[in-house]
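Provenance

Sequences were taken from public entries as deposited. Structures were produced by running a predictor on each sequence independently, with no templates supplied. The record for CAAX prenyl protease 2 from Schistocephalus solidus is shown for reference.
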Amino acid sequence: MLLAYSPEFVTHPYFRCASYCILFISTLYLYGGLNRQDIQSVRRRIFSASISCLLILLDTITFVRRPNAKGLSLTLLELSRVHLKLEGLGTALFVPSSVTLLLFMGPLFSEYRARYYYRASDWLRECYYTLDWRWLRTVIVAPCVEELIFRGCILFHLKRELKSCCSLCLASAGFFAVSHFHHVFEKIHAGYSWKSAIKSCTAQVLLTAFFGTYSTFIVLRTGNLLAACMVHAICNQFGLPDLRAEIHLAEMRDGARGKVLYLAILVAGLFGWMLLILPATSPHLFSNNSPFCYT
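Predicted structure for CAAX prenyl protease 2:
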C-alpha cells in the first residue's frame, strides 16, 4: 500500500476510499470466484474479505497514529478515530438494534404465528440446517468486514474532507452502494442477460444506499462501529421482506382480521422506529462529543 510519503493525490481522502473499495471487491473474485453460493467459494471469500479488511485497516492506521508513535501499539483515542471503542459498548449494541427491530415487526409477527406450535426439537432441527457457511458469511462476517471498511476506514478518510453529518452519510453510502454493483457479474455468470442483471442490481444498490446512509448515521451518532455491526447483522438476517406474500399468508391463516392485524403491526413498527431512532441514538447517551453527529 502507498503510505504517507506518496504524492499528495495518493493520500487524498477520495482516492483512498476508492482504492479501498477496489481492493475489497477485487479480492472477492481473485480468490473467491464468481459463484457466491458455492460452499468452497463462500469459504474462500470469507478468507479473502478478512485479508483485504486487515490490509485496509493497517493502511488507515498509518493516518490515525501520531507521528511520534513507536512500535505497533495503538491508544484508545487512536482506535476511536475509526469508531472502535469499548466505552458504552452494551448500550451501543442493544439500543440501536432494538429500535431497528421495529422495522421488522410485521415479519416477526408472521414468524411468531408460523412457529406457534413449534417444539424444541423443531427449533434445533432448523438451527442445524440454517447455521452453515452461508449464514456465517451473511450474518457475521459480512457485517463486521463491511462496517469496518466502509464505516470505519472509509468514513475516517471522508471526515478529513467533509464536515457535516448529512454529507458524510451520503458519501459513505455512495461508496457502499456502488461497491455492490459487482453483483452484476455474478448474475451474468448465473445466466442472466446484461439488461436483467443490471435491472436487478440497480434495485439492490438503491436499497444498499439507503442502508449505508442509515448505518453511517448510527456510527456518527453513537460513535461506535459495533452498533452498526449489530444493526447490519439484524438486517442481513431478515433480508428484504416479501410483504405481499406475508400479507397474503396472514389473510389465509386468519382471514381479513389477520391481514388487518399484520398491516397494523407493520405500520406501528414503522412509526415506532421514526419516533425512537433519534432519542435512541442520542450522542449524550453514548458520551459522544463528535461535532459530526449534530450537523
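The radius of gyration is 21 Å.
Residues 158 and 251 are 48 Å apart (CA to CA).
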